[in-house]
Amino acid sequence: MGLINSGIDMIKQYNKIAIICHTVPDTDAIASLIALKKLIKQNTPEEVLVNKQIDLFVDAEEVNELDAAMIKGIEHNVQNCDNYDLAVSVDCAAANRMGKYEQLFNNAKHTINIDHHATNTKFGEINLVIKASSTCEALYIMAKVRNLKISDEVCNLIYSGIITDTNNLTQGTITKLTHKTITEMVERNINTQAIHEHFFKNNTKSKTFLLQKALSTMKFVAKDKIVFMKITSKDMHDCEATFDDTLGIINHGIDIKGVEIAILAIKKDENTYYVSLRSKNNTKVDELAKKFGGGGHDQVAAFQYNGTLQDLQREVIQASKEELGQHQTDENTVDGLFFGDEDGESYVVTDEENE
What we know:
Strand content: 15-25%
Number of strands: 11
Largest sheet: 6 strands, mixed
CATH architecture of the largest domain: Alpha-Beta Complex
Shape: globular
Helix content: 25-40%
CATH topology of the largest domain: inorganic pyrophosphatase (n-terminal core)
Strand order of the largest sheet: 6-7-8-9-11-10
Number of helices: 15
C-alpha cells in the first residue's frame, strides 16, 4: 500500500508527465497507457489540471488495427516538454522495452515503473510491480486503493487489457481479485460482449490464411509435449499478412491435448526471429524466455532470436525439454474436476429433482 500511495502522490505532485509503453504494443500496453492518462485527468481538479501536461509515447511505426480503435484521436508521440518532471512506464518488464523512448524516461527527474510481469527488472525510482493479470488490472488495483474516480470509459480499457492479456481468462496470472474485477466491470454494465467481439471475433482473411500456413508446419517432440511452429517471410507475403495477423496463432498449439509448451518462430528480418512461447499445467516459460534475453509470465512469454532457424529450433527445444524436466506434470488434471470424492459428502439428485 505504501508504494502505491507514494506513486500516486508523485503523479499528483508533478505537472510535466510522460507515460511510455513497450515497443510492438499489445492491447494491455495501449489500454494501460491511455487508462492512466484518463485516470489522472479525471481525478485532478480543473484548476490544477490546466497546468498539467501529460504526453503519451509508444515506439511503434503503427498500432495494430484492433488496438488503434482505442488510441484513435488521442495525441501520442508528441513531446510537448523539453524535460519531464516525471516519466511513467507501463507494461514494460525492462527499461529497454521502451525502445527509442528509454532515454526520455531516463532523462526525467523522477520515474515510476508500473507493471505486472514477474520478470520485471525494477528499473524505476518507484517500482509498482503488482501481481495481476495485466497492467490494466494493476492500474485498477491502484485506483481502488486510493478510492479514485474510475469512469466507464476507463473500465472499458481495463476490461480490454485483462481479457486480452489472459486470452479470455485462460492463461497468465489470474487471481481471485482478477475475477472480482471482472465482476465489478459487469456490474457497471460495461458492454463486455462488444469488447469480446472486437478483440476475439474480428479475424482478417489474411490471419486465417496465415494460421493455415502455421498449423501445417507443426512439429511435435518430447513425446508430443512440445510443439514447434514457424511463419516465414514468404508466408507473410503470400497471405498479404502483417505482424498483427500473427497474434493468437500460438494459442492453437498450446490448446492441443498433451502439449505442455508451444513455440512459434516468426521471421522478422534475415536471421532475426520473434519467438512466442505458451505453456500450461506446472510448466513455466518466463524463465525459458529469459535465457534468450526475453521475458513474460509463467505461461506467456517471448524473446527475439538472432541466428538461423535451425539453431533456433535446436536451442529452444533443448531449453524447453530442460524446463519440462524441472516440473512434474499432472497427467490426470480432469480427475475429480466435475464430481466430488465418493468417500466424502456429495450431492445426490433425487427423483423429485429430476422431474
